[in-house]
Amino acid sequence: GYKTDRILFVGLATKGTFFLLVRLCQLRQVIGIFTRIQTSYRMSNRQRITSDCTEKLRKHNRNNMVNSRQSNIKMITCIIYTITLLLSIYPISVCSFAPSSFGAAHVSLNAMSTSTSLQMSRSTATPTEEMSPFQLRMLKLVQNDKKRVVDKKQRRTRPSNIPSNIQVVCTLDEYKNVVGLEKEKIVVVRFYASWCKSCQAMRPFFYRAAAKYPNVSFVEVPVTEKNAHLHQGLGVPSVPFGHIYHPEAGLVEEQKISKKFFPQFEQILETYVNGVCELPEGAVETPYNVIDVTEQ
């Protein structure tokens, strides 16, 4: 009875435990197999990626080496052609050679005449028909550089186009002598600053007006640290600004003379030069726009 049931229960429990252990062992083997497969797959992927990266790096380095060699060859070729062209255009004339270490020795090589140097330059020069396109381009570059140098020299020696009736005043004493003591001519003054874009834009109009009215004295007063009190004392609110002085009445006009307002300023100047103001039929008011000089 009781002992038989206990023996059966122990046997069944032992069998079940053994079965579970067998199953656990099998499961562990299966997990190990999957782990090894996954590890080998990852290792193969890493090796493949590493090999691909290494191959790409090798190709990149190889291309860089080829490109650097080609660029070096091109640079050396360009330098050689440039030196050849410079020697063909500017032949080296051999002058005297006097070695200082040998006091008595003096070698003079001035026997080469002008005709010989010309023959050498002609012999070293390559005909244009036989030059390659690259050589022709280099020759044009050298010739253009020579033209630029000549143009710069001509610009430096070229006379100024500033009219003769324009003067530059920088101090208060000069302003008194040129403007205040003028008793014969009408004086037009332009107050400007070198850094002012508007002043630079209207400068050609001012010079054109000076050329148009040769009997009028035109004066330019730049803004500097030394004459700041001059502009303040004359009530110049901004630049560019203009004054018109009459030899008998003194200061008669003051207004802004930017590119927008300078035509009106020139029209007012013309009335003082001619001594008359046009009066349209039926007009009783001023034909000029009144500009508030304090506005800025």
From TrEMBL:
Residue ranges of the TM segments: 72-92
Domain Thioredoxin span(s) in chain numbering: 147-278
GO biological process: cell redox homeostasis
Pfam families to which the protein is assigned, alphabetical: Thioredoxin
Origin superkingdom: Eukaryota
Keyword field: Membrane, Transmembrane, Transmembrane helix
InterPro entries recorded: Thioredoxin-like_sf, Thioredoxin_domain
Gene3D superfamilies reported for this sequence: Glutaredoxin
Homology family: Belongs to the thioredoxin family.
PANTHER family to which the protein is assigned, alphabetical: THIOREDOXIN, MITOCHONDRIAL, THIOREDOXIN-LIKE 2-2, CHLOROPLASTIC
The name this protein goes by in its record: Thioredoxin domain-containing protein
